[in-house]
Write a structure and sequence with these properties.
- This protein is 26% helix and 29% strand.
- By secondary structure, it is an alpha+beta fold.
- It has a nine-stranded antiparallel beta sheet.
- Helix 2 crosses helix 5.
- It starts with a helix and ends with a helix.
Length: 238
């Protein structure tokens, strides 16, 4: 798995370069190319009856698109950046937060859509990913509860042969039905990177916002404007 993750991380350099040119190119679309919009692999059902998950068509309509957030270039995430795998974390008590790196959850979602969001400001090296997950309501609640508990109690872990540490809870937005935020430092082949996460549940849907500081600084913040725009669009669809 390390080689696969290596390919994912190798794209970071290219994405950093895009931050300097994003304002010059044309806007992305939600239609072309092979993207990360796909039904997730099915896991054994664990949910009790509740709100039904949004399907693929609904998630695509609810996902951010170019023009939805001023100052950002929004495109479908590449499929190989969010593979349908769950790699064991060590210790297992950190699995829920480790899965978020590849925009995954356990149990798997019924459907998942992902977007890459890059600032058109050449001085902003924050790389963003946004994942929308259609879950049974009980599963969505359990996943968010697991993420909250682990963000408070899992301080370091190993995942895909890389080391992560300094897991710290953050201030979650007052959006959706409930939300969690945290940051974590990753040591990837000797390069230290900061990742910031915000996870919001709205009904049976989960939205994961991942921010990466590509310059290796100590902060990686998920912009409020992106979170608010995404949650507003999702809740109009639900």
């Amino acid at each position: 798995m390390k080689s696969g993750l290596g390919r994912t991380l190798a794209g970071i350099g290219a994405l950093v370069a895009l931050t300097a040119t994003a304002g010059c190119g044309g806007g992305g679309t939600d239609d072309g190319g092979k993207t990360g919009d796909k039904p997730a692999a099915k896991a054994p059902a664990t949910a009790k009856p509740g709100l039904e998950p949004l399907g693929m068509a609904q998630l695509k309509k609810a996902a951010l698109a170019q023009g939805d957030v001023k100052g950002y270039r929004i495109t479908p995430a590449a499929e190989d950046e969010i593979p349908d795998v769950s790699v064991p974390a060590k210790p297992a008590s950190c699995q829920a937060i480790a899965d978020l790196f590849l925009l995954g959850t356990e149990p798997d979602a019924e459907a998942r859509v992902a977007r890459s969001v890059i600032s058109t400001d050449a001085t902003d090296a924050t790389l963003l990913k946004v994942g929308l997950f259609g879950h049974e309501e009980a599963n969505a609640k359990k996943i968010l509860a697991d993420v909250r508990e682990q963000s408070e109690n899992c301080h370091s872990y190993e995942h895909t042969d890389y080391q992560y540490s300094d897991v710290k809870p953050g201030e979650a937005p007052k959006l959706g039905d409930e939300a969690v935020a945290f940051t974590v430092r990753g040591n990837v082949d000797g390069t230290k990177m900061t990742f910031g996460y915000t996870v919001v549940r709205s009904g049976s849907s989960l939205v994961v916002f991942q921010a990466l500081n590509a310059l290796g600084g100590a902060k990686a913040e998920v912009p409020d404007a992106v979170v608010e725009a995404q949650m507003g669009k999702l809740e109009k669809q639900a």
